[in-house]
Design a protein that fits this description.
The complex is a heterodimer of chains A (491) and B (447).
Chain A lengths: L9 H10 L23 E9 L5 E10 L2 E6 L9 E4 L4 E4 L1 E6 L29 H7 L3 E6 L7 E9 L17 E5 L22 H30 L14 H8 L4 E6 L2 H14 L5 E4 L7 H6 L3 E4 L17 H7 L4 E3 L10 H10 L5 H6 L3 H6 L17 E4 L10 E6 L2 E5 H38 L24
Parallel strand pairs in A: 1-4, 1-5, 6-7, 9-10, 10-11, 11-12, 12-13
Antiparallel strand pairs in A: 1-2, 2-3, 5-14, 7-8, 8-9, 14-15, 15-16
Helix pairs in contact in A: 3-4, 3-5
Chain B lengths: L1 H18 L14 E8 L7 E9 L2 E6 L9 E4 L4 E4 L1 E6 L37 H6 L3 E6 L15 E9 L5 H4 E11 L6 E4 L4 E4 L2 H30 L9 H10 L5 E5 L2 H13 L4 E5 L7 H6 L4 E3 L15 H11 L4 E3 L10 H10 L4 H6 L3 H6 L17 E4 L10 E6 L2 E2 L5 H10 L7
Parallel strand pairs in B: 1-4, 1-5, 6-7, 9-12, 12-13, 13-14, 14-15
Antiparallel strand pairs in B: 1-2, 2-3, 5-16, 7-8, 8-9, 10-11, 16-17, 17-18
Classes of the chains: A alpha/beta (491), B alpha/beta (447).
């Protein structure tokens, strides 16, 4: 959600997101992309300060990339004869930033708010590779993002992790092998605290008690459903004949995957009590909450979060935009880290994602994290939270060559991304971006001119038409209403 | 809930007082002279002074320099290794007017009706707002509290004239103690030609044909023009000795505006709207301050030629159009300044006021000279609002609003060690730090 444009308020937009229901048309169903094809020659990044995140900082180091993977990290690495070389003297390389909470690249609205359990809907069905936010967030150093359903419902839609492969079709966006997820939401948003309007129908739940019961109710159903399938499968495996399989339930299938540990729960939450509530419910049903999202009061119950093995993905310094964020403090990430929680800092906002490196840096000031700990907030830790840490999140041999090159230490407000690599391929190059601007401007001018001429021509034709003797024209068909595009999730 | 929290906080506050004896929690107490020594002083009125001294006397800067004698009996702060800057000035906030933006009961930014020039922000500024100390901790010593300026999650009504913004210090037991200038600027929300609008009856965006949008726009501009015309007549009559006329509080409030004494914060972002607003203000002889200005770069020559300064929205966001360069808002400050347009940075939102320095630093990363960035959060907003005689630099005679830091105040990791408002050493403790300390000391969980 772009705050700048929120002249009528985020609350209203959030509500819009809740109510305008209709999701976009599925572009690519079941987008199952294989690893991006990589026939590119080897690539050597030379002479950079390398922030490996897991193995300290290497001054004047080199990174060799082959087949989209990091093949070697060290100094004085010899480039293969055909290798492309990036001279990064005086520059800093760090692992690509991973945004654990994003709503970019979604075609249409992010909320299916008509029901309180909307686990049947899937963000994967509405990935939009043409969203310019992909490019802009790339330019801010983000290589992978967790694309979530909004927070209208206690149990929301299915989520998907993508790589920001700008220019590739939707089928190439999903992060291969990343565990699928599902959005949960607690507190003010699912109980519609800030979006209740007279004349609009309300729905259960309207309290935090109701939120808990909605979740418990759904998992009680899911548990029975799973049992009926387990029984069926068992009897079928035993050779029993003429069995009637249970009826498939698209709402409960993903919840069964949660119960089986195959689908990660990413739960929007703020207040300490609701955090503990969800951890209790999860324990009751025998699953683990993978991440608490926002979790701005996480610092109050950090021990309990750590004990549950649950990650926390929070904001750097947002606060006071609603009651449940009034006790938010910028020390949250550092405090939870110190109590043993795996913590990340996320954007939840396409614009915010352009400077997550800076947002991570704030935890050095607020709470005293070290440079490496602060870096982890936007690299290794979100990778762990999304189950992709074997592939990304640090600069290590064998990992994907998803790298950002900055002109200076990225934990500074003065750092600017110079290049971005995903799978060893340069997806953003600031020099090229700058060099290409004049041409783009020219193209835009020409297109506008073309549109203007065409409009003039049409107007003339219309005039000529009107001068003709009256003919009965067919009734113009009413246009379908323009669908509003919600830019982000309801926080 | 709120009451109980406040009760809980009382002992913490008192404990804080004991620890830092002599620190004023926002109050004004009779002061002896205070002196900051051995600091690198960025006066912003000349080159930085190494190993310099600042003398504060009765709330004002009494002396700044490398060779300044320390008055007898003065309280001395040895700032070796530290740096001194003017306190930062955030020229667009809803400070004290909005506490929790989603909760209407805590928001007093925007009145009903479209013409409200008689409303004054200072009336509704809550001196004990939790935002004030939080913002102060980021080195911000003064702000403009701006009515009808939106803010995060707040619904902005269609105000044409939204009321008067008040310049306030971020310390004081009462608004009277906080005031710098009560009637600092008039707020005008430039109507714009909006082809999309939000329909509250159906909760959806409604597309409007351009011709209808233009009609609405013309009507709004007519209304504004008529209003200013009326105000001008009223001002004339009011200036005529012996004239008998019916007093009108709204028209009365417009007198300094039509006389060109009070600047007008004109909120506009799109190039077309800015152009129209500039033309209007020129015609009406209004002292325009463009506020927002997302597309100011497109009309920079116009802004320069008409001497219209700009208070810029946060740089750290997406630009207006999908095909704008991704860093458009970050490169714009340097571009405007190079074109001769005066700029200042604003947070436009209480909750993000502390990002003011970060906004400026990002502009530096995209071409703005560092010194200009510093000035764009100190001196330039003061100049734009006509307060540079009192604030904005560290010069003899100015109000002693200053910060002592361990580094560059625009950088993310810099800490404010000492903060002075009206010459008073003022605490940087706040609600968030209290919560930090409280929960830092939570014993390990037992179950």
């Amino acid at each position: 959600m772009n705050r700048r444009r929120a002249s009528f308020g985020v609350a209203a937009v959030a509500l819009l997101g809740l109510l305008s229901g209709a999701s976009g048309v599925a572009r690519e169903k079941e987008a199952k992309a294989s690893a991006a094809a990589n026939s590119a020659p080897a690539l050597l990044i030379r002479n950079a300060t390398i922030l490996t995140v897991t193995r300290g900082t290497l001054e004047k180091g080199d990174i060799l990339i082959k087949d989209g993977k990091i093949a070697a990290v060290g100094s004085g690495i010899k480039a293969p004869a055909d290798a492309q070389v990036i001279d990064a003297s005086g520059q800093f390389v760090m692992p690509g930033i991973i945004d654990c909470h994003s709503h970019i690249a979604i075609d249409g609205d992010v909320n299916e708010g008509s029901v309180s359990v909307s686990s049947m809907v899937n963000i994967a069905d509405v990935l939009n590779p043409d969203d310019p936010a992909i490019y802009r967030d790339l330019a801010g150093g983000v290589t992978a993002a967790n694309i979530l359903h909004g927070s209208a419902n206690p149990i929301g839609g299915q989520t998907i992790v993508i790589k920001l492969r700008w220019g590739q079709p939707a089928a190439k966006l999903p992060f291969e092998g990343a565990p699928p997820g599902i959005k949960f939401a607690l507190g003010e948003n699912p109980k519609h605290s800030n979006s209740r309007v007279s004349g609009m129908p309300d729905r259960y739940p309207a309290t935090r008690m109701g939120v808990e019961e909605t979740i418990r109710g759904a998992f009680t159903e899911a548990r029975d459903y799973k049992k009926s399938w387990d029984d069926y499968n068992k009897r079928a495996a035993a050779g029993e004949r003429n069995l009637i399989p249970p009826r498939r339930d698209l709402k409960l299938d993903p919840l069964v995957e949660v119960l089986e540990g195959k689908r990660y729960v990413h739960a929007h939450c703020y207040r300490e009590d609701e955090i503990l509530m969800l951890l209790r419910v999860a324990k009751e049903f025998g699953f683990r909450v993978q991440t608490l999202q926002h979790v701005l009061e996480g610092y109050k119950v950090a021990d309990e979060i750590a004990a549950a093995g649950t990650g926390a993905s929070t904001f750097s310094d947002w606060w006071a935009y609603k009651v449940e964020t009034y006790d938010a403090i910028p020390y949250n990430a550092a405090m939870m880290t110190r109590r043993g929680v795996v913590v990340s800092v996320n954007s939840d906002d396409a614009g915010e994602a352009m400077h997550l490196n800076q947002e991570a840096a704030k935890s050095m000031r607020y709470g005293g994290l070290t440079h490496d700990e602060a870096l982890k907030l936007v690299t290794l830790n979100p990778a762990i939270q999304l189950g992709i840490e074997k592939r990304v999140g640090s600069i290590e041999v064998g990992k994907d060559a998803d790298l950002v090159i900055y002109n200076r230490d990225p934990l500074s407000a003065y750092a600017v991304v110079q290049k971005m690599l995903i799978d060893g391929r340069v997806y953003f190059d600031r020099e090229k971006d700058l060099a290409g601007r004049a041409a783009l401007e020219q193209e835009k001018k020409e297109l506008l001119e073309k549109a203007r001429k065409s409009a003039e021509k049409k107007a003339e034709e219309k005039k000529a038409e009107e001068k003709k003797p009256q003919e009965k024209k067919p009734e113009e068909k009413a246009k379908p209403p323009q669908e509003h595009r919600d830019e982000g999730g309801a926080r | 809930m709120k009451t109980s929290r406040m009760k809980m906080r009382v002992p913490i506050l008192f404990a804080g007082c004991l620890c830092v004896a002599g620190m004023a929690f926002g109050q004004t107490v009779p002061a002896t002279d205070t002196v900051i020594t051995h600091a690198k002083i960025f006066t912003l009125a000349g080159a930085p002074i190494e190993g310099g001294t600042v003398v504060i006397h009765e709330g004002k800067i009494a002396a700044v320099g490398a060779n300044v004698s320390i008055p007898a009996g003065a309280k001395v702060i040895d700032a070796k290794g530290l740096q001194v800057y003017p306190g930062l000035f955030d020229p667009v906030t809803q400070m004290g007017l909005s506490e929790i933006s989603a909760v209407r009961a805590t928001v007093d930014t925007t009145e009903m009706g479209s013409i409200n020039p008689d409303l004054v922000a200072a009336t509704a500024v809550l001196p004990s707002s939790a935002h004030i100390p939080v913002t102060r901790a980021a080195g911000i010593t003064e702000v403009l509290a701006v009515p009808a300026s939106g803010g995060f999650d707040s619904v902005r009504a269609t105000n044409l004239i939204g009321g008067q913004a008040s310049a306030i210090h971020l310390a004081g037991w009462t608004v009277a103690e906080m005031l710098i200038r009560k009637n600092a600027a008039m707020v005008m929300d430039w109507p714009g030609i909006e082809t999309q609008s939000f329909d509250f009856s159906t909760f959806s965006m409604k597309e409007k044909p351009y011709s209808d949008a233009k009609k609405d726009y013309d009507k709004a501009v007519d209304q504004l023009a008529n209003w200013i015309e009326e105000s001008r007549h009223y001002a004339q009559v009011a200036a005529t000795s012996g004239a008998v006329y019916d007093r009108d509080v709204k028209l009365e409030a417009m007198i300094p505006v039509v006389r060109g004494d009070m600047p007008v914060l004109v909120f506009a972002d799109k190039a077309r709207d800015i152009r129209n607003a500039v033309e209007f203000c020129q015609k009406q002889n209004l002292k325009m301050i463009l506020t927002g200005g997302s597309e100011a770069w497109k009309v920079k020559d116009l802004l320069r030629s008409k001497s219209v300064p700009v208070i810029l929205r946060p740089t750290l966001e997406y630009p207006m159009e999908d095909d704008d360069a991704y860093d458009r808002l970050m490169t714009q400050p340097a571009e405007l300044l190079a074109a001769g347009v005066k700029i200042a940075f604003g947070s436009f939102d209480n909750s993000f006021a502390r990002r003011l320095g970060q906004q400026a630093a990002n502009a530096v990363a995209h071409g703005l000279a560092y010194e200009d960035a510093l000035k764009a959060v100190t001196l330039y907003p003061a100049e734009i609002l006509g307060l540079d005689g009192e604030l904005g630099t560290l010069e003899t005679g100015k109000i002693a609003n200053l910060i002592v830091t361990n580094g560059d105040p625009l950088e993310l990791t810099t800490e404010v060690r000492y903060l002075f408002i009206k010459g008073q050493l003022t605490s940087t403790d706040n609600k968030q730090k209290d919560l930090y300390e409280k929960y830092l000391n939570r014993p390990p969980a037992t179950n």
